[in-house]
Amino acid sequence: MTTILALDLGTNTGWALLQPINPWNYQVISGTISFKNDRFAGGGMPYLRFGKWLNEIEQLSNGVTAVYFEEVRRHLGVDAAHAYGGFMATLTAWCENNNIPYQGVSVGTIKQYATGKGNANKQAVIDAIKAKGYNPKDDNEADALALMEYAKIKCCV
Which helix (H) or strand (E) holds 7? Predict the structure, then answer.
């Protein structure tokens, strides 16, 4: 049985965990977590906190067996690109260290799967995820839930 962690990486990371209860049922836990830095912390602290959070998810879930993350190819700003690169590097190193397979999925693929349109806006993804019975608090959580739904079909469940 597979436990999938789906991530919309960023300073405000959306996450969704698909965890088996038994061979026929799964539970979904999701949310958004902030890794914003304060002015007194060093520049690497968000990534250290992210790595610590990944370890906590691993322990609480009794083992993540697959990780999917939203693979962003274009950022509107340099800061966002740098932050994404740091989170992706932290995530992939953590996965390698823990022998957990990981895969990036393009934004367009996730949107196409969730809404039927690869260029759907944030609200369309939120609406599509709500139509599946979820109640995301923001677009980051909605993106993670959409990715989890995609991974559930494509991976192993």
Answer: strand 4-8
Say which amino acid occupies 88. Answer: M
DSSP state of 75: -
Which fold does the domain 4-154 belong to in CATH?
A: Nucleotidyltransferase; domain 5 (3.30.420)
Are 68 and 102 in contact by the 8 Å Cβ rule? The answer is yes
DSSP state letters, 9-65: -SSEEEEEEEEEEETTEEEEEEEEEE-PPPTTS-TTHHHHHHHHHHHHHHHHTT---
**pTM score, two decimals?**
0.92
The sheet carrying 66-71 orders its strands as 25-34, 12-22, 4-8, 66-71, 102-106
| Contacting residues for 138 by C-beta, under 8 A, at least 6 apart | 12, 14, 32
Residue 50 has pLDDT above 70, yes or no: yes
Task: Give the strand pairing for 66-71 and 102-106.
Answer: parallel
